[in-house]
Amino acid sequence: MSAAIVLLTLAERAAASLEVGIWGTAAWLAVAIVAAIGSMSLLGMALVLIERKVAARFQSRLGPMRVGPHGLFQTVADSIKLLIKEDIIPEQADRILFFLAPTFSLIATLLALVIVPVSPTLHLVDLNIGVVFFAAVSGFGVLGILLGGWSSNNKWSLLGAMRAGAQFISYELSLTLCLIVAVLFAGSLQLSEVVASQADGWWIWRGHVVTIVAFVVFIIASTAELNRPPFDLPEAESELTGGFHTEFSGLRFAFFFLAEFINMFVASALAATLFLGGWMPFQVGGWDTFNSVMAIIPGPIWFAGKVAVIIFISMWVRWTFPRLRVDQLMRLEWKFLLPIGIANVLIAAVIILSGLYFFPVGN
Amino acid sequence: MDWFLIFVFTLTAVGLVGGGLLVSRLVAPHNPGGKKNQPYECGEETVGHNWVHFNVGYYLIALLFLVFEVEAAFLFPWAVIFREVGWVGLIEVGIFVGVLVMALVYAWKKGILEWV
């Protein structure tokens, strides 16, 4: 919590000093950005621990318990271990691409963090094309995976990387169509305006069934893009040993995993922003007392709560469903989710043009 | 201004990732050679190279992806201004999407979507 307050202060200082001049404030910016990236790395590590703990609970185990109280420092210990492990490069590997792959993966992921709107002030960059920026930057991640699989010169890695590529580009379509539905309702590509448009009620309630479908498809597609079970074919450990990261060791292996977990946060944050109202509190039209009580809770806590719920659901899904086969995966996307997504966009447009919202619309 | 921030953020991200690799280089042992540097293929000796031809299905999927991703790129601008263009715009987009859906139906009938 104290870290969040420090971060908030830094961001506010940076934002305030921006009025004075660009170059004089570079130092503040750098500090704020290092703080942001540092806290996000911590967040990635925390998510790894939470994932293990949640997994353990689902399987009636305790999970990591030894390092620190209730295994709190387990991922810290693991990170240090990975840092001091030897970095093995296979003889036949393409050394340059092998070096670039995990680096690229992590940098692209960190870049996507830049647009996550935590609160009106705690928002590093409020791009006027935020939604498109997310779609563009999240697409970089798969390049790291493809490069990693190709450069390893290992049969498992190549198979995993090709699967990852096919899976990613397939589910990218559904993801983009869901983004378009949210943009249709909000009428803006800027994430702060998307959140502001939900002041009267979150889109998931107000768009009839359309936004609920879009939200569910968004969660499925982002799970598939993150290579998380039940869509973890690219690294399917029981058939491909480790898939695209078979040959990676030490810190580069850690980079792939950090990227995956930070990506999970970014995708959940986007889902919370587009469909669950971001930092907006839960409001019901006409219930003034209830609304004022809800409004007391600060925005960042609402945001964190929504993201936490979505992340928990994705962990729940992970430990509930078995892995899909490749043909099932492709059938699900191309014959099921894609037609639904296209129809959903058109129905959303019809609903908005005929003014069929739930709740009164502000503008 | 926004893009300057993103530029600074990118530089910082590159710096942090590079710094991490540098620290790892300094503290980790470096002792290559022997069986350790062979590709791991479950204990079997590696046979030949792996940079080979792969299933043409991936290529077809990539082509289809290109069609619909470009469609999405055209839909974003429409999504922002579609309250102004109204029903006319919606019908035009409907025709545009309809043509692309025909492509999907064609691919479906051709059996490209069946993964083998």
Look at the helices and sheets of chain B and give the structural class.
mainly alpha
Helix content, binned percent of chain B = 55-70%
Cα-based radius of gyration of chain A, to the nearest Å: 21 Å
Tell me the CATH topology of chain B. Methane Monooxygenase Hydroxylase, Chain G, domain 1
| Annotation, overall tally of beta strands of chain A | 0
Ranges of chain B with pLDDT <50 over ≥5 residues?
Answer: none
How many domains comprise the coordinates of chain A? 2
- Give the beta-strand count of chain B: 0
Distance between the termini of chain B: 50 Å
Helix count of chain B? 2
Distance between the termini of chain A: 36 Å
Number of helices of chain A: 15
Q: Any idea what the CATH architecture of chain B is? A: Up-down Bundle
The gross shape of chain B turns out to be flat
Radius of gyration over C-alpha positions of chain B, nearest whole angstrom? 25 Å
H/E element sequence of chain B: HH
Largest interface: A-B, 78 and 66 residues
Feature tags:
heterodimer; A: mainly alpha; B: 116 residues; mainly alpha; Methane Monooxygenase Hydroxylase, Chain G, domain 1
Could you explain the architecture of this structure?
The complex is a heterodimer of chains A (363) and B (116). Chain A folds into 2 domains: 1-84, no CATH class; 92-353, no CATH class. In chain A, 68% of the residues lie in helices and 0% in strands. Chain A contains 15 helices and no strands. Chain A has helices at residues 2-17, 26-58, 74-83, 95-112, 130-138, 140-152, 155-186, 191-196, 203-206, 208-225, 237-240, 250-275, 288-296, 299-318, 326-353. The longest helix of chain A has 33 residues, at 26-58. The radius of gyration of chain A is 21 Å and the shape is globular. By secondary structure, chain B is mainly alpha-helical. Chain B has a single domain, classed as Up-down Bundle (Methane Monooxygenase Hydroxylase, Chain G, domain 1). Chain B contains 2 helices and no strands. Chain B starts with a helix and ends in a 6-residue tail after the last helix. The model of chain B has no long low-confidence stretch (mean pLDDT 82). The chains are: A mainly alpha (363), B mainly alpha (116). At the A-B interface, helix 2, helix 4, helix 5, helix 7 and helix 12 of A face helix 1 and helix 2 of B.
